[in-house]
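Predict structure. Chain length: 70.
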Amino acid sequence: HIAALTATPVLNLSSMAVNFWETGPRTPGSRVLFSPNIYDLEPETVAAHAKTLLAGEPPPSSCWLRTAWD
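Prediction complete.
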């Protein structure tokens, strides 16, 4: 929520336990990696998305991407 207040894109790791469109991220450029079971998200995939997000590069693999403010 602090990231949204400062317009900072974030990498959200999400599972069936929450609805990420209700809880965030809100900032354009943010990404959501989803797996029904959070433990199935591969650390390499998370790291690759974090690295490209910090570098301002496109996602390295499929994810949900926030493209506009709601």
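Summary: The first helix runs from residue 2 to 5.
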